[in-house]
Amino acid sequence: MRISNNVIIIVSRKDIAGMNMRERLFELANFMETPIEVPESWPIGQYELHISDNASIITIEEDQIQSDYLSDNIDAKLVIFASKHSAKSGKKALLVHTTGIFGESSIYGGNTNELAIAPSKILQMAYDQIKELQLEYKLDEYWTGIEVTHHGPTNYNIPLIYMETGGTEEEWRDKKACGLIADAIHYIINNVDIGFENYNKTTFIGIGGTHYAARFAKLLDKGEYLMGHILPKYAHDGVEDTIIDEMYNKTLGAEKIFLIDKKGAKSDHRKRFIARIEELGYKWQIA
Q1: Of 116, 139, 173, 253, which is most buried, counting CB atoms within 10 Å of its CB?
Q2: How far, in Å, are 1, 34, 46, 54, 126 from residue 37 at the CA level?
Q3: How far apart (Å, rounded) are the C-alpha atoms in residues 109 and 154?
Q4: Planar angle of CA 85, 86, 90, nearest 5 degrees
Q5: Any idea where the domains of the chain sit in the sequence?
Q6: pTM for this structure?
Q7: 188 forms bridges with which residues in the sheet?
Q8: 3-196 adopts what CATH topology?
Q9: Does the pLDDT value for residue 88 go beyond 90?
């Protein structure tokens, strides 16, 4: 069995925010429930498949970060994970990011030193659309941001992004915030082809900084770059220099450059990453 469409959206039944986003997507487009033949390789559970003209929604039992098993059974231009965001701070957030594991795989899904394909223009479109809708929805108590590359899944041979709201159950149950993310997803569905053509800006691949990549988010706000993978400071100790190859090869973009957050990376790590970048002949500069 293969599930094919322009865009495939994956929602976990465990995910309160994701299920609220699904409800809003059902209002925005004519999704028809379709029988699904569950492959033996999938975990035992209740699955649902809803199909519209341009997108399919797969509802799974597992946490989305553990959904690498889906990769052999889907064909799409883009995969979107409609998801909750968890934060100890409880800060209300609307976020986008792509996925990948820097170092050893863990309980957070994915495979060791493997990254998903980061669709730089789609990430920019999603970020810009969420910011625009935040103003329209007047959700002033939320902030729109990006996250660095983290958690699974990683083995999809299809570009993928996460679109999230959080960071506590209160936000996951906020129908307005979840509806905003669903509206942004709907926008991406309707404009997905634009997201893979005419890369009119350089795509950055980030090294350094914190989880919410404030330095790199400012560059997006200025409209100077498109966004690729970002390797945060907290992951530097656990990776080999060869992660540079993976970050470059798994970031889509016509012209790519490594941007290094000088204050967000220790000197020894910064030097070894630069050495690898130069060895491979890639461009880099201090952000």
Answers
A1: 116
A2: 7, 10, 11, 21, 32
A3: 8
A4: 110
A5: 3-196, 203-286
A6: 0.97
A7: none
A8: Aminopeptidase (3.40.630)
A9: no
